[in-house]
């Protein structure tokens, strides 16, 4: 799927006062995703006007539906009456009617009507979790909070998704691997010199390197100290209400105008064993250069980029189930260690808060 970076921000839904489902132990959070932040959900065009989409995110089941005017809503996929799946129900425009008994739930998670018993005490109560949602760069983002943080965290979108002088294409896929491995793969620039050695854009540079971590106001860089602008030489982890990485790959002149191309990447947990990955490949180009870049991407570069992603998918999906239990890490793995400890610490803190709150 390809999309330009023209940004559309949809109407946000009110926070739900309903406790979200699921076991919130530290191990569970570490495995299925920490809360109190935003995640990419799916491409925008997968939920057309008047459409619905059922999906699993962070180990929980959800329903997206879009009204005729384009307004998007997200609900826990659970009828508050008997627990039936709302995704099996009927789209009524601004609400969903459960197939089982016809109970109607609107986009805020409030019971709008109980046709079998009008005026019953369920009506008017907000009984279904309804995360805030927005759209940007051709993707839907949602905020997943806990009971103590129902209001969405402040969100600063990647500038590459909002700058009109940046042209990008979104690549979305689902991988059969835990989300942390997808993030850790991005915090491991050295694999580009080996796994992607035959790629048209990562065939140059040394296969030995030293790395350092450099702090930033929004996260940190993990970068080579002895090579820059040659291969996959640095990555920045950014924490701006949503976690994302930014990196650049040098391009030869045959790839058209715009210099190096960049990647904004995100990984969203589906469950313990699956994740959704989002990669925006972008260049800062305008006017005729923009048209040239987009033509070359669609006709030549897109297939090559998917080949690189396929290499990552195969390697990550074939990791042993106990891969992170029997490692012997070295200096190149400082970025992996840093991000792993970061998420583990946050999972433990959130689990403790949920227990004592």
What does this structure look like?
The relative contact order is 0.16. Residues 1-17 have low confidence and may be disordered. 19% of the residues lie in helices and 29% in strands. The longest helix is centred in the last third of the chain and has 31 residues, at 287-317. It has two domains: 26-144, Rieske [2Fe-2S] iron-sulphur domain (Rieske Iron-sulfur Protein); 159-343, Naphthalene 1,2-dioxygenase Alpha Subunit, Chain A, domain 1 (Alpha-Beta Complex). α1 (26-32) crosses α4 (334-356). Strands 11-17-16-15-14-13-12 form a seven-stranded antiparallel β-sheet. A four-stranded antiparallel β-sheet has the order 5-6-7-8, with no helix packed on it. It has a three-stranded antiparallel β-sheet with strand order 1-10-9, with no helix packed on it. β3 (60-66) and β4 form a beta hairpin. The chain contains four helices and 17 strands. It is of the alpha+beta class and 357 residues long. The two termini are 43 Å apart. Residues 38-142 form the Rieske domain.
């Amino acid at each position: 799927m390809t999309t330009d970076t023209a940004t559309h921000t949809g109407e946000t839904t009110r926070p739900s006062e309903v406790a979200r489902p699921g076991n919130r132990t530290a191990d569970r959070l570490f495995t299925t995703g920490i809360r109190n932040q935003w995640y990419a959900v799916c491409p925008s065009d997968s939920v057309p006007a008047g459409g619905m989409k059922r999906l699993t995110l962070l180990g929980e089941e959800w329903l997206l539906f879009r009204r005729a005017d384009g307004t998007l809503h997200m609900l826990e996929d659970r009828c508050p009456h008997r627990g039936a799946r709302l995704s099996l129900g009927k789209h009524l425009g601004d609400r969903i009617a459960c197939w089982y008994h016809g109970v109607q739930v609107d986009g805020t998670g409030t019971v709008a009507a109980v046709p079998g018993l009008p005026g019953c005490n369920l009506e008017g109560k907000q009984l279904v979790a309804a995360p805030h949602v927005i759209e940007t760069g051709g993707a839907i983002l949602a905020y997943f909070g806990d009971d103590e943080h129902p209001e969405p965290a402040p969100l600063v979108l990647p500038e590459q998704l909002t700058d009109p002088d940046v042209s990008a294409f979104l690549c979305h896929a689902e991988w059969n691997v835990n989300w942390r491995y997808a993030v850790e793969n991005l915090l491991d620039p050295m694999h580009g010199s080996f796994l992607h050695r035959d790629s048209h854009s990562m065939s140059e540079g040394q296969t030995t390197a030293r790395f350092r971590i450099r702090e930033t106001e929004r996260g940190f860089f993990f970068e080579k100290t002895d090579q820059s602008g040659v291969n996959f030489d640095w990555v920045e982890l950014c924490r701006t209400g949503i976690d994302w990485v930014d990196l650049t790959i040098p391009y030869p002149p045959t790839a058209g105008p715009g210099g190096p191309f960049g990647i904004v990447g995100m990984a969203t947990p589906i469950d313990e064993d699956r994740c959704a990955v989002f990669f925006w490949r972008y260049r800062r180009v305008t006017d005729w250069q923009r048209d040239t870049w987009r033509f070359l991407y669609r006709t030549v570069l897109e297939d090559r980029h998917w080949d690189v992603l396929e290499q990552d998918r195969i390697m990550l999906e074939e990791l042993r189930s106990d891969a992170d239990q029997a490692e012997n890490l070295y200096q190149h793995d400082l970025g992996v260690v840093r991000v792993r400890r970061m998420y583990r610490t946050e999972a433990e803190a959130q689990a403790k808060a949920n227990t004592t709150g």
